[in-house]
Amino acid sequence: MTVESLKKSSDFSKVYKRGKSYADKYLVMYVLPKKQAHTRVGISVSKKVGNSVVRHRVKRLIKESFRLNYQNESSNDHKNYDLVFIARVRSKDIDYHKIEHSMKFLLNKLG
Hints:
globular
């Protein structure tokens, strides 16, 4: 199963409008099931989170956590999704393990 990234603003908008959202105190995840044979992931980190160094760090943590955890989950026969992860302001001061726990929690809600 391949994982690609969401790049176009229109793709993000479609996931926001038509998808379902799940949230906890560090991340919000929007999910839109689809029929294509690959999952696409987008990550959004607002300027409210911090300067570019902080935002990029949070983005890297989310990306790595997804890479490690979704590959474990994808061994099962899952549907394919468009996913968008949005970092909340609280996420700027946390470490990798809290991001990972948050992502696992959200992916478990997805089923």
